[in-house]
Structure formats: C-alpha cells, structure tokens
Design brief:
With about 400 residues, the protein is α+β, with helices and mostly antiparallel strands. It is about 20% helix and about 30% strand. Keywords: Hydrolase, Signal.
C-alpha cells in the first residue's frame, strides 16, 4: 500500500429491497446517445429516530455537490421499528436564492416512483431507491425532497443535526405543491431521505467523508453549506468536468468509532453509509474523538487502530482507497483531560506513521495552536473549543491534496 501524505493535511418494474443496501429499480430509456454514469451527489446518514409525523408532508432541503441530467433518491427506514408507508414523494429544485423557502422552482416538480409505483412501504431495517427521474440538476443547488406519511409508521429514521432549515406541512399530502404555503412548520432535521444520486455524461466518482459532528458541520453557519465536505466539493467543482467528484457527507454528530453513541458506530454503519453508496472511490475517515472524550472513554489507542484497520480492509475489498484524518485538538472543552490528550496524541501517531491508511490528512497540524498544541487556533473556534467555525471548516478542506482523491 503506497502511502501519501497530504500537506497539512471520499407496477412496471420489480422493487428490490436490501437490509442496508438499496434497490435500483429505475426505468431507463431504451437508447441513449451517450453512456449514463451515476454518482452520489448528497448524503445525510441516518443518525437515529424521532417521533413520526402522521398525516404530515415533510419537505427536506438537500444540497448537491455535482450536477446531472437525471436523479434518484434513497429513502430509509433503517432504524425504524414498523414498516414505513409513504403516501407519495416528489423531487424539485428549490426556488433560486432562497435557502429558507419551501417554494419549488416552477417547472421542476417531479413525482418519485418506486418500481413504477407512487406509494411504497419500506420494511423495517431497509432502504429503497426511487426510479430515476429526468431533471436538470446543477452543481451546488438545493433540491426539495418531499415525502408524505399518511399514518403512524412508528419512529422515523432521520438525521438529527441537518444544519439546514427544512419544512413540514402538518396535514395532508402536499408533496406536489409548488408554492410552499402549506409548509407552516420547520425542522432542523432531515426525515427519511438519506441519499441522492445524479446521472452524468462523465464517469464521475464520489468521495465519502465518514465522521462525527466535526464532519457533520457543528459550529458552522446553518443553511449555508459551510461544512468542510461542502468546501471540499467546491474545490472539486473547480476542476475540469472529467476530474470532478461528488462529495457525500457521512458525518453524524455524537458518532463513535467503536461503540453506539449517536446512531450506530462507524464500524456498524460502514456498509450502509459508505460501501453501498454510488461511485465511491475514496473514503476520508475522521472518527475517534468521541471514543476518547466521552464515557465510556477509550483509553487504548490500539483499539482505535484496530478499528481503522478493519475499515481499510473492508473498503479495499470494494476497491475504495482510504484517507485517515488525524484527530483535532479539544483543549478547553469540558471533556478534556491530560490523559485523554495523551491518547489523542498516540492515536495521531498511529495515523501518521502506522501505515494504516493509503494517505493521511493531517487536520491536527492544520488547526492546532503552535503555542498550545492541545488547543485549536482561536480563529477557528466557535467558542466550545471542540468544533469549528466556517474558517476552521475551510482550513480543513483546503489542506487536502486533491491529487490523492484522483489517484
């Protein structure tokens, strides 16, 4: 395994279901003028469950990393306890320049079907992927994925910390509404929708960022898409079309590498959130700080090293390269102790020099204060001494050598 170091341093058709996989039941045209290539453009990992919203329509706002000419959407009941009955689902582009509006851009509303059917029941523990719909989707655009739950399907699989204003119409099937006047409530979580793929003329790969709240975006500006994977996507979009890649954010606030915390552990969700995603060529792993700082605390760096090796082994079996990110400072945070700092430093030594990964993103070196290396630079600190503000997120993403992602 060749290691590289990043400087300072992802009714008509039968519907098939899989435990943590998906069904690609889309209806494709019989002939094309050019080959179709699918890639992931957005992800919101299932982080837990919330109370169901029976009778409501939920309008999720998701942000693309790359664009395309057709779209398919992943709907999840992975963490539910009852079958999920959807009374309808749609896809549209959000009205331009209005990230906090529930209005769809006129002319872009599309009905989502599943094996040709407008309604679908998703079994417990399963995901489904919609049939493809033709829609021109720009890169860096907001899409509206709206679902209607006519009854109580039990706990709703959701992504709690979306850092995005989403909308709820409390009563009725409003999935096809272009004007969002019925969507009178808001939520900061994504309900049921966990992935979006686009079809492109170019054979575009995707990068997955697997992490915790530091990847999920805690500390960055809400509804502004300033998480570090968002900035990485921006950098990749500046490349020629054939070199562009989708970026999928598999960050979950509170997530741990080894134990269930907020949502399944990184090891437990690897198949669903990384290996089953479309076109994945590179995985960036930034996990472990919650294992160190949160009870029950992990005090054995070798245990984290073994988990990293398992992730790499499973990713390599799918032809996916793995970049390991060093763990960033948390001095001044409430969970900090000198002993935990020593564990963090030892884990970072393993990441940098242990031959665990195909490449290393030295995020710790990017953000630490040289005069107090157990703390981040004040310019990157939103005030809690753990997460990153917009400037810190940008610094992480800008430190990644894009050549490593293209290899």
């Amino acid at each position: 395994m060749v290691r590289q170091t990043l400087v300072a341093v992802a009714g008509a058709l039968t519907l098939t279901l899989m435990g943590t996989g998906v069904a690609h039941g889309g209806r494709e045209p019989l002939a094309r003028t050019a080959p179709a290539h699918w890639t992931g453009t957005w992800e919101g990992s299932a982080s837990g469950t919330a109370a169901a919203l029976p009778g409501a329509s939920i309008r999720n706002v998701v942000h693309t990393s790359v664009g395309g000419t057709a779209v398919r959407v992943r709907i999840s009941n992975r963490l539910g306890t009852l079958p999920l009955a959807l009374g309808g689902a749609t896809l549209a582009r959000q009205v331009r320049n209005a990230p906090k509006s529930p209005d769809a851009l006129p002319g872009t509303m599309r009905t989502l079907t599943f094996g040709g059917r407008k309604k679908v029941t998703v079994p417990v523990g399963r995901d489904v992927v919609s049939d493809s719909v033709t829609l021109g989707v720009p890169a860096a655009a907001n899409l509206l994925v709206t679902v209607h739950t006519p009854g109580d399907s039990g706990p709703a699989t959701y992504h709690r910390d979306a850092l995005q204003t989403n909308f709820v119409a409390p009563k009725g099937n409003r999935v096809a509404d272009v004007r969002g006047t019925a969507f009178t409530a808001t939520t900061r979580s994504w309900y049921y929708v966990t992935g979006v793929d686009v079809r492109r003329a170019e054979a575009t790969r995707s990068v997955v960022a697997l992490g915790d709240s530091l990847t999920d975006g805690s500390g960055s500006t809400p509804s502004a898409n300033r998480r570090w994977p968002d900035r990485l996507a921006e950098r990749l979009r500046a490349l020629p079309a054939r070199r562009q890649q989708g970026v999928l954010n598999a960050g979950v606030a509170g997530n741990r590498l080894l134990l269930e915390g907020r949502g399944p552990s990184a090891l437990a969700r690897l198949d669903a959130d990384v290996l089953s995603r479309t076109g994945v060529r590179t995985l960036i792993v930034m996990e472990g700080i919650n294992d160190i700082k949160s009870a029950p605390n992990q005090t054995d760096p070798a245990a984290l090293g073994a988990a990293y090796r398992e992730i790499v082994r499973r990713a390599h079996a799918r032809g996916i390269r793995v970049v390991g990110a060093t763990l960033t400072p948390f001095g001044g945070y409430g969970g900090y102790t000198d002993r935990r700092e020593r564990v963090r430093q030892e884990v970072n030594r393993l990441i940098r020099s242990g031959g665990l990964f195909d490449a290393v993103a030295d995020f710790d070196a990017v953000v630490r204060d040289p005069s107090r290396p157990n703390r981040m630079l004040a310019a990157y600190d939103p005030g809690d001494h753990l997460h990153f503000n917009d400037a810190g997120m940008r610094a992480l993403a800008d430190s990644i050598d894009l050549r490593v992602l293209e290899g």
